[in-house]
Amino acid sequence: MASLTDTAIRQSLKRVELTGKQENLADGEGRGTGRLVLVLKPMPTRVTADWMAQQWRDGKRTKKKIGSYPSTSLAKARELFKRDFADVIQRGRSIKIASDTRAGTVADLFEGYVAALKAAGKPSWRETEKGLNKIAETLGRNRPAREIEADEIVELIRPIYERGARSMADHVRSYLHAAYSWGMKSEHDYRHSSPRRFRIPFNPATGIPTEPKVQGTRWLDEDEFFQLYRWLECPDTSVHPSYPRAVQLIMLTGQRVEEIARLHVDQWDAAEKIIDWSKTKNLHPHAVPLPSIAAELIESIKPNEFGWYFPSAKDPSKPVSHGTLYSFVWRQRDRGVIPYATNRDLRRTFKTLAGKAGLSKEIRDRIQNHALQDVSSKNYDRWNYMPEKRAGMKKWDTFVRALLTRRRLREAA
Question: 382 vs 298, which has greater pLDDT?
Answer without folding.
Answer: 298
